[in-house]
UniProtKB/TrEMBL annotation:
This is Noroxomaritidine synthase. It comes from the Eukaryota. One of its GO terms (biological process) is lipid metabolic process. It comes from Thalictrum thalictroides. Keywords: Heme, Iron, Metal-binding, Monooxygenase, Oxidoreductase. Belongs to the cytochrome P450 family. One of its GO terms (molecular function) is oxidoreductase activity, acting on paired donors, with incorporation or reduction of molecular oxygen. Its cofactor is heme. InterPro entries: Cyt_P450, Cyt_P450_CS, Cyt_P450_E_grp-I, Cyt_P450_sf. Heme binds at C201.
Length: 255
């Protein structure tokens, strides 16, 4: 499968008649540079924001942390990353810190569900704006006219009880897991943290991969405890984040 940059280069060299914006973009030698830089920067800030909220929610919900750790322990022992004979005086394997690659984490259902649940409550992009390019009628019967601007709040949608249930404000990764212990797909039709349909965020898969690797490394090697009396104040901007950041106490974890 070709990478995104290769696809754009191909279309810039051989644009179709329907890709007028690519024909115009070919006249601008900075187009590809600016496009790729925008993607990288957008992903960096979004993942940083998403990781902060995820670690905060996990630290507030001990049973979620324990469940994720149990998943990680199974992977660690399976790959022989923890060896009792190599323990140091702190009780942690000599190869500390224990790190996981993306392939290690692909099958971890609860970790994936925890990320989905965190992004449902606190999407990195809380609101987006769409401009109507053609008169249309929405499914609910509302008429929209060319040039109108519509604001969509993913933050509000992710907390609506008539969509997610009466416990919509509760951080509950289990809602994403079916009776067979697998990731359920029925909720994805309500999940707009990455937009949906043909406008789905190009960085969706990368975001999940990077968040899994970082969270696994942090939780498996460190205790993360919240600093008391530090209220969390949301700051909605281009990315949703915490006004004063997240204050935590970090200590080395012993297994």
């Amino acid at each position: 499968m070709k990478d995104l940059l290769s696809i754009f280069i191909k279309y810039l060299d051989e644009p179709s008649l329907n890709d007028k914006f690519l024909v115009d973009a070919r006249l601008n030698t900075n187009f590809l540079r600016d496009l790729m830089l925008g993607i990288f920067l957008a992903e960096k800030d979004a993942i940083a924001s998403s990781l902060t909220f995820l670690l905060w929610l996990i630290a507030k919900t001990p049973y979620v942390e324990e469940t994720i750790l149990e998943e990680l322990k199974m992977i660690a022992y399976k790959k022989d990353k923890l060896k009792q004979e190599d323990e140091d005086e702190d009780g942690v394997g000599a190869k500390w810190p224990i790190l996981f690659d993306s392939n290690d984490l692909n099958g971890l259902v609860y970790l994936h569900a925890s990320i989905c649940e965190s992004l449902r409550l606190y999407p990195s992009v809380p609101i987006i704006k769409k401009t109507i390019i053609k008169d249309d009628i929405l499914p609910d019967g509302s008429a929209v006219k060319t040039g109108m601007q519509i604001f969509l709040s993913f933050y509000a949608e992710g907390q609506m009880p008539w969509i997610w249930g009466e416990d919509s404000m509760v951080f509950k990764p289990e809602r994403w897991i079916d009776d067979e212990g697998k990731l359920g797909h029925d909720l994805m039709s309500k999940f707009y943290a990455f937009n949906a349909g043909p406008r789905t965020c190009l960085g969706m898969a990368t975001t999940f991969t990077e968040m899994k690797v970082v969270v696994a490394a942090v939780l498996f090697n460190f205790n993360v405890r919240l600093v008391e009396d530090r209220p969390i104040i949301l700051r909605p901007y281009v990315n949703l984040n915490m006004k004063d950041g997240l204050s935590v106490k970090i200590s080395k974890r012993t297994m």
